UniProtKB/TrEMBL annotation:
<dbReference type="Pfam" id="PF00067">
    <property type="entry name" value="p450"/>
</dbReference>
<dbReference type="InterPro" id="IPR001128">
    <property type="entry name" value="Cyt_P450"/>
</dbReference>
<keyword id="KW-0408">Iron</keyword>
<feature type="transmembrane region" description="Helical">
    <location>
        <begin position="17"/>
        <end position="39"/>
    </location>
</feature>
<dbReference type="GO" id="GO:0016705">
    <property type="term" value="F:oxidoreductase activity, acting on paired donors, with incorporation or reduction of molecular oxygen"/>
</dbReference>
<keyword id="KW-1133">Transmembrane helix</keyword>
<keyword id="KW-0812">Transmembrane</keyword>
<keyword id="KW-0349">Heme</keyword>
<dbReference type="GO" id="GO:0004497">
    <property type="term" value="F:monooxygenase activity"/>
</dbReference>
<dbReference type="GO" id="GO:0005506">
    <property type="term" value="F:iron ion binding"/>
</dbReference>
<comment type="similarity">
    <text>Belongs to the cytochrome P450 family.</text>
</comment>
<keyword id="KW-0503">Monooxygenase</keyword>
<dbReference type="InterPro" id="IPR002401">
    <property type="entry name" value="Cyt_P450_E_grp-I"/>
</dbReference>
<dbReference type="InterPro" id="IPR036396">
    <property type="entry name" value="Cyt_P450_sf"/>
</dbReference>
<keyword id="KW-0560">Oxidoreductase</keyword>
<feature type="binding site" description="axial binding residue">
    <location>
        <position position="514"/>
    </location>
    <ligand>
        <name>heme</name>
    </ligand>
</feature>
<protein>
    <recommendedName>
        <fullName>Cytochrome P450</fullName>
    </recommendedName>
</protein>
Length: 577
């Protein structure tokens, strides 16, 4: 006898129905897996099974702060092209890098770059396509050219003032939290460049309110928030949407009008006010002033610029020049302050003293031994820029501790024409593989900088352990012992160094490379030559110095490779006799 409800009207039992649903679901999943593994447009790209099936593997690595090293291990296992998710490919060969980053057709990957807009307006850095980018970059690039930076920043004392302030900072307490000191230094230089010396943040000179703004910007919570934007854009967009409408309701209740772009951070507020100040005082000698004038004239031939656009551009350059340069200096100084780098420091000090003898030994010499100057002669700056060992130390820092080690993602464009060999139309052939248009693709400096071309000793090319070591000598011909070489060996050495130089990717490449690199190199070299001609530095664990910021190893997001994890970054400066 049947009980009502045990049988469905069709005569199928509930157990059978459930089994059918489970089977259908299983078949669907099986089909999804089979199609992801065998029929996806990226199924022929090498990589582990898991990355063919789900994007969560790479997202999980990101959550653990291990995306960059994780991608690097995939390359070591699978070669120069690897599928890192069902819709993303990572490349590591020079040919692929040239194809992706030298071509104007590969747009930037918008979900990542759009996070960096300010006041609701695009910038040169955030604009994704060639059309959006070209006119913005054109408007700023002249002010960052080497000739302009040499005659402007040094002649007007913007960099020198920050170096002087750095020395006073060190003199006030020789146990220096170098993370703070270098972040402040880079901030003072870049705000001086953009808004003028008078309007610069002057954090090293003791402006506490500005120090607080800068350190607040790098606080762990804020950086976690940015990381959330990268990894969980949907959640953050919902949150943003909520915050936007909450702001609207608030403004209705309080009768205060708040524009959406006005909900900005403290540092953005500072940038907005600094820009308005430059504009109202017509400081046309500054970069922000020049851009303001362009905006007044309609923004140039191709683009439209208003106050928000210009302030956003100025803000972006300011932020781009702060932690990149500050952290590179910190990693360099910390590495040089370790006991194993004692010889590196010695060699650098000797090079500086040879190039710039002390006033007692040669009359008329002032900088770097005295800072009683307003500007440096052009020849002195060129001499600093061309010191071979200083150059080698900086290049090795940019290689091993590159400030932006992560993938810089682009989007594969459609083919210009049908590929004759494969017949494919909608995509590009990269590393011999067809990659469909719309795929996210990218490379990362951390991996590029561990290529075998950086292994110095012949016969050790398979032992990549060597490329992780900090060894400035690899950038010198025969480690600096040129006279010991035959002409043939000399030629080989020159070729080895040229190849390494071509592979160094700290500032990116192509039309989207770093516009601020000349300023950054100049400010780093001037500071380092001043410091290392006067002081020895040594790491000072348990120094008792109160760390006023989140320790540098706790900072996350863009730099997921964290050198010197666990240190507090305090270094003691001891003057040479
Ligand atoms: C050691 C210091 C620095 C490093 C390692 C560095 C690195 C980079 C890299 C790798 C890119 C390419 C980013 C991408 O394609 O997504 C870039 C772009 C950029 N950098 Fe730097 N940077 C440094 C300092 C500076 C400074 C001092 C400034 C400005 C004062 C600056 C301004 C910019 C701008 C505006 C862009 C975007 C360029 C464009 O898309 O046209 N950077 N930087």
């Amino acid at each position: 006898m049947m009980i009502d409800g045990e049988y469905f009207p069709t005569g199928i039992s509930s157990t059978e129905y459930l089994t059918a649903v489970i089977c259908a679901f299983g078949a669907l999943i099986a089909w999804k897996l089979v199609s992801a593994i065998f029929f996806s447009p990226l199924s022929h790209v090498p990589g582990p099974l898991v990355t063919a099936i789900t994007p969560h593997y790479i997202n999980f690595l990101s959550a653990l702060n291990r995306r960059t090293v994780g991608t690097y291990s995939l390359h070591r296992r699978y070669g120069p092209i690897v599928r890192v998710s069902p819709t993303e490919v990572s490349v590591l060969s020079p040919q692929a890098i040239k194809e992706v980053y030298s071509s104007p057709h590969y747009a930037k990957y918008a979900p990542l770059y759009s996070i960096f807009t300010h006041f609701g307006a695009q910038t040169a850095f955030t604009s994704c396509t060639r059309e959006e980018h070209g006119w913005r970059r054109k408007a700023v690039s002249e002010a960052y050219s080497l000739s302009f930076v040499l005659k402007d920043e040094v002649a007007t004392g913007k960099v020198l003032q920050a170096v002087k302030d750095y020395l006073s900072f060190v003199e006030s307490d020789r146990r220096v939290d170098i993370y703070n000191a270098n972040t402040f230094y880079a901030t003072d230089v870049v705000t001086g460049k953009i808004f003028g010396l008078e309007a610069s943040m002057k954090t090293l000179a003791g402006n506490e309110a500005h120090r607080d703004i800068v350190l607040g910007h790098y606080a762990r919570t804020r950086r976690t928030q940015v990381w959330m934007y990268i990894e969980f854009p949907l959640v953050m967009n919902v949150f943003e949407w909520f915050a936007f409408y909450a702001g609207k309701v608030w403004s209705l209740v309080c009768g205060e009008k708040i524009e959406d772009w006005e909900m900005v951070s403290r540092i953005q507020r500072w940038g907005w006010d600094a820009y308005m100040d430059v504009k109202s005082n017509s400081r046309e000698g500054t970069l922000a002033g020049r851009l303001a004038r362009l905006a007044e004239d309609g923004g140039g031939a191709e683009g439209v610029w208003d106050d928000r656009g210009v302030a956003s551009e100025a803000m972006d350059q300011m932020l781009a020049g702060m932690d990149t340069t500050g952290d590179t200096l910190s990693f360099l100084m910390y590495q040089l302050s370790l006991p194993e780098s004692r010889n590196v420091q010695k060699r650098l000090h000797s090079e500086l003293l040879d190039a710039f003898p002390k006033p007692a030994e040669i009359s008329g010499s002032s900088w770097p031994h005295s800072m009683d100057i307003q500007s440096l002669p052009h020849e002195t700056i060129l001499k600093v820029l061309n010191l071979p060992y200083l150059e080698a130390v900086l290049k090795e820092t940019l290689r091993v501790y590159t400030a932006i080690p992560i993938t810089l993602p682009r989007v594969v464009p459609p083919s210009a024409t049908t590929d004759r060999v494969s017949g494919h139309r909608n995509g590009r052939i990269i590393e011999g593989k067809f990659i469909p248009a719309g795929t996210t693709i990218g490379t990362f400096a951390y991996g590029i900088h561990r290529d075998e071309v950086f292994a110095v000793e012949t016969g050790r090319k398979d032992n990549l352990g060597d490329v992780d070591n900090f060894l400035p000598e690899r950038w010198l011909i025969n480690g600096g012992l040129e006279d010991k070489l035959t002409p043939d060996e000399m030629e080989q050495e020159k070729q080895r160094i040229r190849t390494m130089e071509a592979r160094l990717w700290a500032f990116g490449s192509g039309a989207r490379n770093c516009v601020g690199r000349h300023l950054s190199i100049l400010e780093m070299k001037l500071l380092l030559s001043t410091i290392y001609s006067r002081y020895q530095t040594q790491v000072t664990p348990n120094s008792g110095v109160k760390i006023t910021h989140n320790r540098w190893h706790q900072r996350r997001t863009f730099r997921d490779v964290l050198p010197f994890s666990g240190v507090d970054g305090v270094v003691t400066f001891t003057p040479y006799e």
